[in-house]
Amino acid sequence: MSAIAATSGPTRIVFGTDGWRARTADEFTFENVRRCADAVAQYVANRGEQSKGIVIAYDRRFVSEYFAAAAAEVVAAHDIPVALSREAVPTQMSSFEVVQRGSAAGIVITASHNPWTDNGFKVKSPTGAAGGPEMLSAVEALIAANAGQEIARRPIADAEAAGLIERFDPYAGYVEFIRPNIDLERLAAADVSVLIDPLYGSGAGWLPRLLAGGRIHVTEIHSERNPYFGGINPEPIPPNVDQALATLAGGGYDLGLLLDGDADRSGLADERGTFITTLEIFGLLMYYLAEYRGLKAPVVKTVNETSMAERLGERYGVAVYEVPVGFKFIGPKMIETGAMMGGEESGGYGFGMHLPERDGIFTDLMLLDLFIREKAAGRWPVSSSIARFHEIAGPSSYRRVDLHFDRAVYPALKERLLAELPARAPVALAGGPVVRTQSLSTNDGAKFFAADGSWLLVRFSGTEPLVRVYTEAASSAAVDANLETGEGIVKGA
Predict the structure, then answer these.
(1) Pick from 140, 174, 208: which residue ends a domain?
(2) Which range of residues forms the domain containing residue 96?
(3) Is 191 domain-assigned?
């Protein structure tokens, strides 16, 4: 996601990998939120779908509820009904509401795992998935067209009195929505102890509430609203989750379940406080669906996801499709292929039996179900279960390094480095000689494959001024060596 401010005049708003994000009070202003909402409303009106309405939700970031109200006033001015969340809710609850209501679109005010200084504007399609490239291109064009124009608004109290704005609480409906695929009573009855860290975000309280009333022992930390997020980026990876990992290492828990700031991404740790990488989670979920659910439908992964998917696909007869980074690519491919799941490196996973969109809460429940089943099969504790999983899926050591740059120099650096990447391609990685180089179809990086199947990816973030270097290899030593190679490629520029 990115927004490039012009030197004068209106902000140029561009939707990246998952919406538009920018710094609050700089580019992310009430004026620009209204422009985005006006464009979504026009998009819906142009399709003759006003009567279907638009769902609007928001997270716990600074004044998110006021940005959401501003968006609702603009949509209401188009005489389009609005379902507005009563309080901050996980992003995927807007997807759920869009599907349940048959709405024409969804809007979510959230910057997900970005720094606390940012906020964002996400658009959902009628399927509940992230708005696809065609939808977002149309919305971007409408935003560009309304630059400098006065955006009509209908005061929220007036719109509510007229019945145009309805406040909703998604909890009860969500519980019934997930029951066909998650036996909440069985999970709640399990004799396990779980630590949950929602990282101060809008997922706080959801898992304890869903698992209440049974034998399971659930402890949640960082559940209060803190728009500063304790000074961390609310992404469920180290070092942001170090306190949770240390708590687990102190004993008394069987596993840790993690969420990001808007609860559409998940994380996992074992009973020793060992962080389980997002690539391992993808493999574990694929294993769970095939081994325990007996599902054989395809899976969709992004270019920065694990090579374990192909090995598991061969074992279980499951087709694997690869797409660019972002659920705006994953969701539509899941729908096209009838996939049972899709996922990305950043910890977002969607499921065919649920939503073609990320849902960290549903994912954490699926992971809990997996390990409860593993315990019943005698593969316990969680660390032992994961060790056996790697005997099936093969080794996977993974790490990502984010190289930050000044916003002012980032565009020029990106253009130059992208042009130079082919010439800078390494001839060898820790896994052997480089046997293949893949330029990303989105023209934002390149991926290099070693002879043993390990890989190195250099990719420009679509959300922040940084270059991400990823690698998956057979050992942590190989990962370290590959990251050094990748950092050299970037820093050499």
Answers:
(1) 174
(2) 2-174
(3) no
Q: Which residue has the tokens 């090579």?
A: 307
Token pair 């179809």: residue: 441
Cis peptide bond N-terminal to 422, omega within 30? no
Segment-wise mean pLDDT, segments of 10 residues, the chain, 493 residues: 51 85 95 98 98 98 98 98 98 94 97 94 93 92 95 97 97 96 97 98 98 97 96 94 98 98 96 97 98 98 95 98 90 94 95 93 98 98 98 95 89 86 90 91 90 92 84 96 94 73
What's the Rg (C-alpha) of the chain?
Answer: 22
Looking at the 3D structure of the chain, how many domains does it have? 2
Tokens of 374: 């593993």
pTM recorded for the entire structure: 0.91
Query: Domain boundary at 137, 154, 174, which?
Result: 174
Q: Report the CATH number that the domain containing residue 90 is assigned in CATH.
A: 3.40.120.10
CA distance 225 to 247: 21
What's the CATH number where 458 sits? 3.30.310.50
Residue 5: its pLDDT value, please? 41
116, 229 contact by CB (below 8 A): yes
On whether the CB atoms of residues 152 and 146 are closer than 8 A, the answer is no
Residue 70 token pair = 């501003």
Residue 311 lies in a domain: no
Task: Answer yes or no: is 19 within a domain.
Answer: yes
What gap in Å lies between CA 181 and CA 353, rounded to an integer?
7
Joined together, the tokens standing for residue 440 give 């990303």
Neighbours of 252 (CB within 10 A): 11
* Cα distance between residue 268 and residue 347, in whole Å: 10
Cα(213)–Cα(204) distance, integer angstroms = 18
- Helices 92-101 and 171-178: crossing angle in degrees, nearest 10, is 80
Domain for residue 84, yes or no?
A: yes
pLDDT for position 52:
98
